[in-house]
Structures are given as structure tokens and as C-alpha cells.
Design a protein that fits this description.
The chain has 5 helices and 13 strands. It has 266 residues and is of the alpha+beta class. The longest helix has 24 residues, at 239-262. The chain is globular and about 55 Å long.
């Protein structure tokens, strides 16, 4: 029987006895801006020769993002830092998420079907628009048989999942999701396996769109870093539309995740 994932690797995990202080992950200025910012987020957009400006000081995340940047040499990068304050009732004696909370966080990130129907603000239309009309885990890139979202009682340290997602902007495509689970963080990346088109115009080649989300435990809060990077075609009149949509689409994914953990860390 085909399984829902392409590969899964189990390794031993290091034990983290204490939460990671926010100021050890990002600069003091960024931490202050996050705590004081409206909705607790900072957004940066860079074009042409982007360099990550908001990436937290986490070894696994830095290795991941550096590798992706080198692989596609993107001409657009949108980064977001978001500070999620844990509900009071979810705080633990040790100050870090316990195993039950970690499982809930991981399972929310693998709940790919729940992305269907989320909305983002379309700058070109000046209105909210559905992001993914359809979203489902599939058994691979050939048969594309839809499967239930994976649910774990013990998160694996690494996981690969394929998904079919219909985006009202870029059409019906296949993506690969890679998950990395460490003691204090969960990181996932999304890569387009099929080329993305804007109508009949090809705008992002296969493998040239990469999105990253890192969820890092900071004790009484969770630091979420999201980055979308792409090597886009230089199509007159389209580049600005594509670039301007990235930030709003990233915000939609952050809202989706924060709402999911709101309902699961109570």
C-alpha cells in the first residue's frame, strides 16, 4: 500500500531543558518591535538580490534558508516575523511546550487540507480573495491520489509529504512539503514541483518557489518566521503583481496557523 509520504526518517532528538529567550533568536530591536508592533509582526520585502534580514538565530533554520537561497537565486524575498503569545492555561512548569503541545503544533502544520478556503487580501482587486480553492495530501506525483492529513502521536524528526493545491492565481499544482522537527522548533518548507502559470503565461518555473515557516518555542510565546522566495519571470506588467501578492499571501498562512493553534493550545 502506498503511504501518504514519500519518505520519513526517525532520529534521536536532543532534550531542551529550557525555553529559548526571544533576544537570543533575534536582535533586541526586533524583539522590541515585535512586542510593540500592531498584531505582533514585522514584514520585510526585498527584490533583485535579496538577503534574509529577519531570520532568527537557529542553526537548522539558517542552514535550510541558506540552501534554498543558493539553489534558486531568488529575485523576490518576503519575510515575516510573528510573535504568538501562548494562552495562560497552556504554559508549563518548565517554561517550554510539553510533548502533548508539541504534537498539537506539529499536527496543525501537517493539516494541509485545512488550507482550502483560506483568504488573502488581493492588492490588484482591492478585496479579499480565496487563496487555495483545493488542498490535499496525495500519495505521490504520479497517481495523485488524495489522502487524509497525516496525524502523529509522536512527531517524526523529518518528514516529506506531497500535496495537490489549486491556487486561484497560479492554478492547480503539486508541491513538496519537507518537515524538520527539533527540540525547540518545527520547520517546514514548500517547493513547487510543477511550474506556476498566471493564466497562460509561465511565471515561476518548477522548483523556483520556496516557502519556509519556522515555529520556535520561547517559553511564554512562540516565534514564527515565514519566508517566501521565488525566481520569477520578467514579464512586463506581471512582476509587480506577483511580487505584491507574496506578502499578503504569507499573512494568510500565518493567520491560518495562529488560528489553528489558538484552538489547540487551550
Amino acid at each position: 500500500m502506498k503511504r501518504f509520504f514519500a519518505s520519513i526518517y526517525i532520529f534521536s532528538l536532543a532534550v531542551c531543558a529550557f525555553p529559548v529567550p526571544l533576544e537570543s533568536l533575534i536582535s533586541a530591536d526586533q524583539a522590541a518591535r515585535l512586542r510593540n508592533a500592531e498584531q505582533g509582526r514585522i514584514i520585510e520585502t526585498q527584490l533583485k538580490n535579496p538577503t534574509p534580514a529577519l531570520m532568527p538565530n537557529n542553526g537548522s533554520l539558517r542552514q535550510n534558508v541558506t540552501g534554498l537561497m543558493s539553489a534558486i537565486n531568488p529575485n523576490v524575498l518576503v519575510e515575516t516575523l510573528y510573535l504568538y503569545l501562548k494562552p495562560a492555561q497552556s504554559k508549563t512548569d518548565s517554561g517550554i511546550w510539553d510533548n502533548g503541545q508539541k504534537i498539537k503544533v506539529f499536527n496543525q502544520l501537517t493539516a494541509i487540507s485545512t488550507l482550502a478556503g483560506i483568504q488573502y487580501y488581493s492588492s490588484s482587486r482591492g478585496a479579499m480573495r480565496i487563496f487555495y480553492e483545493y488542498s490535499s495530501v496525495i500519495d505521490g506525483t504520479a497517481a495523485k491520489k488524495p489522502l487524509p492529513d497525516p496525524v502523529f502521536t509522536q512527531p517524526p524528526s523529518a518528514l516529506t509529504v506531497f500535496a495537490r493545491q489549486k491556487d486561484l492565481t497560479f492554478g492547480d499544482n503539486i508541491y513538496r512539503y519537507e518537515y524538520i522537527n527539533t527540540a525547540d522548533a518545527v520547520i517546514f518548507t514548500q517547493e513547487n514541483i510543477t511550474a506556476l502559470n498566471y493564466g497562460i503565461i509561465p511565471v515561476i518555473g518548477r522548483g523556483n518557489l520556496r516557502s519556509v515557516m519556522a515555529v520556535i518555542d520561547c517559553g511564554n510565546s512562540i516565534l514564527i518566521y515565514a519566508a517566501s522566495m521565488a525566481k520569477t519571470a520578467s514579464a512586463p506588467g506581471l512582476s509587480d503583481k506577483i511580487n505584491s501578492s507574496f506578502s499578503n499571501r504569507a499573512q494568510a498562512v500565518l493567520r491560518w496557523f495562529s488560528e489553528r493553534i489558538d484552538n489547540n493550545l487551550q
